[in-house]
Each structure stands twice: as structure tokens, then as C-alpha cells.
């Protein structure tokens, strides 16, 4: 348990949450500041901050629960779609430094995440970055 981690405290039952799903490794609960009704967070009970710091077996457990919880959130919120989002690092919008996956129900035309600043690679840049990434695997 990490010191001063609000999600560790929620996982340990020291801070209340509206639980949706729980097993020995994973907890899902309602986000206290929902982007839309039914916005749910899925966390490992153990403290990890980012995806690449979390053991693959723990990620596998999260991923094996996500479809079940997402299906329930999707059905219960009468949504037209949903986003599964995981912010990694402050620069990416991560405020709570305990790994979590957002399930955010979406309605057609709701305007959430309307900014998607897609760009184009200049000649040769895509190959260069792909090679750089492969070299780090
Ligand atoms: P992120 O920006 O990805 O770190 O998202 C953190 C999320 O945690 C936000 O959507 C908050 O609304 C949510 N959150 C923070 N504290 C609580 C809490 N005590 N119970 C439920 N959700 C929380
Ligand atoms: Zn934690």
C-alpha cells in the first residue's frame, strides 16, 4: 500500500466508494467526478502507477475483468458507446498515481473529447520513430 494513495485506501476499504465489482486482485467503483453517468474506474488492488510498471499478470487480470464491467456500464447507462482510457503520467492527465482504467459511457454527439489533434508525419519521420521504438523493445 502506497502512502497517501487514495485508491490504495479505497482498495483497503479505508475510504468509501460505490463498488461495482470486486475480486481478490481487482476493484471497480464509480468515479466521484463523472464525465458521464456511470463513469467507472477499474483498478488493481496493488499499487502501480503506470501500465509499463505493472506486471503483465496483473494487467491480464484487469483486462479479463474489463469486458464484463464495460458491458454492464454500457447497458446500465443506455450509452451509444464508451471510451476506455488510461492516463499514464501527469503530462497525460493522470492525477491519481495509482493505475486505473476509466470506462466512460458516451452518447452520440455529446462533445466529450472533441479535440483530437491529429497531424501528419513529414517524409521519413514515421520510419525513423518506428525504428527508435523497436530499438527500445
Ligand atoms: P486521472 O486524471 O486519470 O488520474 O483520473 C482520476 C480520477 O479519479 C478522476 O476522474 C477523479 O474524479 C477520480 N477520483 C478521485 N478521487 C476519487 C474517489 N475518492 N472516489 C472515486 N473517484 C475518485
Ligand atoms: Zn495506490
Explained architecture:
This protein has 137 residues and is α+β, with helices and mostly antiparallel strands. It has one domain (6-135): 2-Layer Sandwich (HIT family, subunit A), CATH 3.30.428. The chain is 28% helix and 18% strand. A hairpin with a 3-residue loop joins strand 1 (19-22) and strand 2. It is globular. The mean pLDDT is 97. It binds adenosine monophosphate (AMP) and zinc ion. Adenosine monophosphate binds next to loops.
Salient structural properties:
single chain; 137 residues; alpha+beta; HIT family, subunit A; 5-stranded antiparallel β-sheet; globular; binds adenosine monophosphate; binds zinc ion
**Outline:** globular
Are there runs of 5+ residues with pLDDT below 50, and where?
A: none
Radius of gyration: 17 Å
Please indicate the percent range of residues in DSSP E strands (runs of 2 or more).
15-25%
N-to-C order of helices and strands: HEEEHEEH
What is the H level of CATH, i.e. the homologous superfamily?
HIT-like
Global mean pLDDT: 97
Just name the CATH architecture.
2-Layer Sandwich
* Quaternary structure classification: single chain
Spatially, the strands of the biggest sheet line up as 1-2-3-5-4
Number of domains: 1
Looking at the structure, the CATH topology is HIT family, subunit A
Helical content (DSSP H or I, runs of 4+): 25-40%
Main sheet summary: 5 strands, antiparallel
Question: What distance separates the N and C termini?
Answer: 30 Å
Bound small molecules, by name, code or SMILES, are: adenosine monophosphate, zinc ion
Query: How many helices in DSSP terms?
Result: 3
**Overall CATH class:** Alpha Beta
Number of strands: 5
What class do helices, strands and sheet pairing give? alpha+beta
Amino acid at each position: 500500500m502506497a502512502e497517501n494513495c487514495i485508491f490504495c485506501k479505497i482498495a483497503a476499504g479505508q475510504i468509501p466508494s460505490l463498488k461495482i465489482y470486486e475480486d481478490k486482485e481487482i476493484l471497480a467503483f464509480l468515479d466521484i467526478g463523472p464525465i458521464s453517468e456511470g463513469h467507472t474506474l477499474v483498478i488493481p488492488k496493488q499499487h502501480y502507477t503506470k501500465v509499463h510498471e505493472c506486471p503483465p499478470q496483473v494487467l491480464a487480470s484487469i483486462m479479463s475483468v474489463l469486458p464484463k464491467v464495460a458491458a454492464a456500464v454500457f447497458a446500465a447507462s443506455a450509452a451509444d458507446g464508451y471510451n476506455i482510457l488510461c492516463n499514464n503520467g501527469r503530462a497525460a492527465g493522470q492525477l491519481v498515481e495509482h493505475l486505473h482504467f476509466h470506462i466512460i459511457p458516451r452518447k452520440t454527439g455529446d462533445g466529450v473529447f472533441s479535440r483530437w489533434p491529429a497531424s501528419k508525419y513529414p517524409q521519413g519521420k514515421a520510419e525513423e520513430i518506428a525504428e527508435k521504438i523497436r530499438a527500445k523493445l
